[in-house]
UniProtKB/TrEMBL annotation:
Domain of life: Bacteria
Record-annotated GP-PDE domain positions: 59-387
Top-level EC class: hydrolase
Alphabetic keyword roster: Glycerol metabolism, Hydrolase, Signal
InterPro entries, sorted: GP_PDE_dom (IPR030395), PLC-like_Pdiesterase_TIM-brl (IPR017946), TAT_signal (IPR006311)
Homology family: Belongs to the glycerophosphoryl diester phosphodiesterase family.
Region of interest (Disordered), residue spans: 34-55
Organism: Streptomyces lunalinharesii
Protein name (database record): glycerophosphodiester phosphodiesterase
UniProt cross-references to CDD domains, sorted A to Z: GDPD_ScGlpQ1_like (cd08602)
Signal peptide residue numbers: 1-33
Length: 393
């Protein structure tokens, strides 16, 4: 289980952990007539930066893996529900490859938790242990399956203990290819008369490149085929590995790029492989943000990097990250807000049931009040209710 954004995560990430730039935002920003906080020093009529497309509201809501609070993630059912709820952008990527080089949509290459692969005796022998980005993982991996084999599987709820209601839909949808998601987005865009925006993540790009399954060329090829590679195409691109985004830029993909930020002590895996000593904490500092702005238009920080949490998991004060990122010309799309107690700061939880909903509305509002440009949520409907009072179109 990854620590930074999974259930039960309770790491302290206060101002100290964020380094020198982690001053309290209060006082750094200025409230406008609607009570919104604008970045300090922002001119009244600044041009929309590349990471803040004029056709999208600010703050925007990204349906994380669709509407994964209600349907098994990265399925057509999840994407369609997010669109129906009014999500501004659909996260269609996490992209991982099959053995024969097709890009498919799964949270991780290990599909043990998100598919019925364990119920397929013909694949029992494919269960194995691998080391991905320095972590040993046992399961079934997409790169060991052809697309034809993947298509014999069905998607299921990843966290059934927390989202029992979603298990109703286990087995309803197949695993999607990225091209199928593009075709769905294009069709829905035509039907509603405005494009469906996508937020597309390359997953473990260095790991897959070493296997001969580079993601970026395949992604660039598909984006180009659907006319979604230009600066004004309705996509954001995201990765925890900065070099993946640079490579996409070199391949002529000009859509806004968002560098995802892990826990402060973590080194992006491409840094580990290339011998770059910097950690995420370095990237969170103004100099790191300036470096990111050389090839990307935004950052996707982990929630406690925007508003710190204390040792007990209670919400603390906003950090300086939003101000610093805006000063570097970067938009800020933090991940991931979810309605259930398991994922909320301690003082936003209601009752003791980890699967019950806490006061997520108040947490959403606290995040929007920092001046972020958008956020990822498994519950885009709730996020949109909270976003309304902060929105500027
Ligand atoms: O892409 C935003 C968020 O999903 C990042 O974390 O690892 O769940 O993709 P991950
Ligand atoms: Ca993602």
């Amino acid at each position: 289980m990854e620590k930074r954004h999974e259930p039960g995560r309770r790491t302290v990430l206060g101002a100290a952990a964020l380094g020198a730039g982690a001053a309290v935002l209060a006082g750094a920003g200025q409230a406008n007539a609607a009570g919104r906080t604008e970045p300090a020093g922002a001119p009244a009529h600044r041009p929309a930066p590349a990471g803040r497309p004029a056709k999208l509201p600010v703050p925007l809501v990204v349906g994380h893996r669709g509407a994964s609070g209600y349907r098994p993630e990265h399925t057509l059912g999840s994407y369609q529900l997010a669109l129906d709820m009014g999500a501004d952008v659909i996260e269609a990527g996490d992209l991982v490859p099959t053995k024969d080089g097709h890009l498919i949509l799964r949270h991780e290459p290990d599909i043990s938790a998100t598919s019925d692969v364990a119920q397929h005796p013909e694949f029992a022998g494919r269960r194995t242990t691998k080391t991905i980005d320095g972590k040993k993982i046992t399961g079934w991996f997409t790169e060991d399956f052809t697309l034809a084999e993947i298509k014999t599987l069905r998607a299921k709820e990843r966290i059934p203990d927390v989202r029992q209601h979603n298990t109703l839909y286990d087995g309803v949808w197949p695993i999607l290819t990225f091209e199928e998601a593009l075709q769905w987005a294009e069709k829905k865009g035509r039907e509603r008369g405005r494009p469906v925006w996508l937020h597309i993540e390359t997953k473990h790009p260095t790991y897959f490149r070493k296997l001969g399954l580079g993601l970026e060329e395949r992604l660039a090829h598909l984006l180009r085929r659907y006319g979604r590679h230009t600066a004004h195409a309705p996509n954001f691109l995201q990765s925890f590995e900065p070099s993946s985004l640079s490579r996409l830029g070199e391949l002529g993909v000009k859509c806004p790029k968002v560098v995802l930020l892990d826990e402060p002590s973590v080194r992006p895996w491409d840094f580990v492989e290339s011998g770059d000593p910097r950690t995420t904490a370095d990237l969170l500092k103004p100099a790191g943000l300036k470096w990111i702005a050389g090839f990307a238009q935004g950052i996707g920080p982990w929630l406690p990097q925007v508003i710190a949490q204390d040792a007990k998991g209670k919400l603390g004060e906003p950090t300086a990250l939003v101000r610093d990122a805006h000063a570097a010309g970067l938009v800020v799309h933090p991940y991931t807000v979810r309605n259930e107690n398991s994922f909320l700061p301690l003082d936003f939880q209601v009752g003791k049931d980890p699967a019950a909903y806490g006061n997520s509305l108040a947490y959403f509002k606290a995040l929007f009040a920092t001046g972020i440009d958008g956020l990822f949520s498994d519950n885009p409907d709730t996020a949109l209710v909270a976003a309304e009072e902060f929105r500027r179109h």
